[in-house]
Amino acid sequence: MRLFGGGLAETWTEPPGRAVRLGTAIAPRRRARLRQALLAAAVLALAAPGTAAAAGLSLASTDLHGGGPIAVKRFQLVGLHWRGSGKVLFRTRSAGGRWSSWRSAAPGEDDLPDRGTEGRQLRGWRLGAPYWTGTADHVQYRTVGRVRAVRAFFVRGPVRGRSFRQPDFTDEPTIVTRAQWHAPESIRRAPPLYADGVHLVFIHHTAGSNSYSASQSALIVRAIMLYHVQANGWNDIGYNFLVDKYGQIFEGRYGGMTRPVIGAHAMGFNAGSAGIALIGNYSSAPVSAAAKAALVSLIAWRLDLGHVDPLSRVVRISAGNPRYPPGTAVTLNAIAAHRDVYPTSCPGNSLYRQLPSIRAQVAQTGLPKIYAPQVAGALGGPVRFTARLSAAADWTVTVKDQAGTVVASGAGTGSAVDWTWDASAASQDQRYTWAISVPDARSATGTLGAALPPPTLGQVKVVPPVVLPNAGAAADHASLVYRLNVQSMVTADLVDEAGATVAELFHGLRRAGRQSFVWKNVSVPDGRYQILLSARNARSQETHKLVPVAVDRTLGPFTGSATAFSPGAGRQLVFRFSLFGPADVQLRIMSGTSPLVSVLEAELNAGPQRVVWDGSGPPDGSYTALLSSTDAVVTAQQSVPLILDRVPPVLRLVSMSSLRFRISEPARVTLILNGRARHLQIRRAGVFRVGYRGTVRSLRAFAVDAAGNRSRVIRGRR
What we know:
By secondary structure, the protein is mainly β. It has 5 helices and 44 strands. Mean pLDDT is 85; it is low at 1-54 and 165-170.
């Protein structure tokens, strides 16, 4: 087997006689192209620092067949995917020849992204957990129930790594960063997504082996990232943090440890939570004192960043998972287990039993603390600041303007903060910062209001660009459309070619977003103009845009005798329009923006006009009849839709007794029942039924479509 730097693998055969296939069968030409792509990926991977190969690990996949032991190149981590509703069990053999116990591959389904966010290309596959096995060279699997296919993913690389200095469990724990554990950044699939904050943490275990050294922990984290990204198709490693049994804490998903990065660890509840995984399986194994101390320190620090009380309960809305449908409100502990929101055993019974003790220890770590800071109200009125404290203390609330000048402050003593600022005199055009402070505690901070940005006018256009006051309601007005970035006073002035203001078309306060107004009752003389659009925000910052517009009264209303027309048999389509002055006129049949037929091209005098066309030339289809009139001022245009249709409708009698018919297109149907005629307008193709009281002894029927095509007459008699 040949492995390439990005963690990809070709087909290999080992031992002799047992073929192990990569994925599904690949045609020879496609395989050649794939090999070229893999070689190119290998070159890039070897050249780029931080790739999987540079990190010393690679991932390969193979489809598994049969139930016997399968020998493979030595690996350190394995994960299984399978199709079907059944279960998969597996075991591995160490390099020393010792088989592990049988394990369920299912736990990996527990740690998942929210639906529709990442890994969508793997629909139909069930995902097993990544198991750290130590150095192994055989795998064997069994299935229970219906399983159609099984695929194994192997991560292999060096078995030794480096350990990091012992954690310093202070207010901010020592965390091994992604750079320090050599995260293969080049394989990340997408930028991080962020929630509004971290409101709770979910505790997990990775469910792999507990037999690893401190120097191997970083390798395990890298291997899990490779599996999550390259096997599962996720954007990055699923967890926000990982903790090993020696107390080492590792940064997980990319995006900033202090920011509310959305992970892929608790389907339906990833947004607004932090996922912390203890490396190993804690279904029955005890949690080491070092691991527990690290968990306490990490959770205390991470919840304090969001001022979350570790003993509180929070309400979260499910985004959807097998246990809680989308929109379900669920009350959870601020320090929760994965099994609290998903049908899983994670994080194992042993670790789960430790959670009450962990919550109590977190609540006593890093005191004093500020919990649940809230701001109610808005600039221009009273603004109330509230919070809870972990214990009674002196507190202050400070408000500063954009220049950093203190504009208001309040103080008090107790276990609750409650102070109101009279912000009636505050400027609504700038941003204020606030802080709730307690000695030796992390301050709670935030902003009020926002500094107004300069106004901008985007996507400005006039539709249509030529106003035709004599052309009727369809063309005697124009709409000015624009997009505004901030609430502003907007003015639209009509300016002539000399730059003089002719009229004010509009003046008013408009909100940010897409805006428009209609210019109608146009009374200015014919000519070329510009609309000067101006926007001024509350700080008197202004912006302007000019957009051309013209007014022309030469062209009057334009109509066609029919919107659907069937050429042939001497039939003619008649176009009518009026000119209120001499003009060069063109009438063309258009397919999109391409002219197909020139029906008229002439200099015409004022008066009513009539143009006849027999429809010859274009095939059946949808077109536009475009009329252009050019005078001394401008070229004005009007159009009418046109359908050419030479095919008659097909009308069939389905049932004489129930008067059921089938028609091929919308049409006007004439029925003559027992010598009396009825007319029906059928609006869509398909089967329709006609109600009739009494016995139908004779029937004749035909259909005429919108273009005038008539079907054959169908007859029925009893």
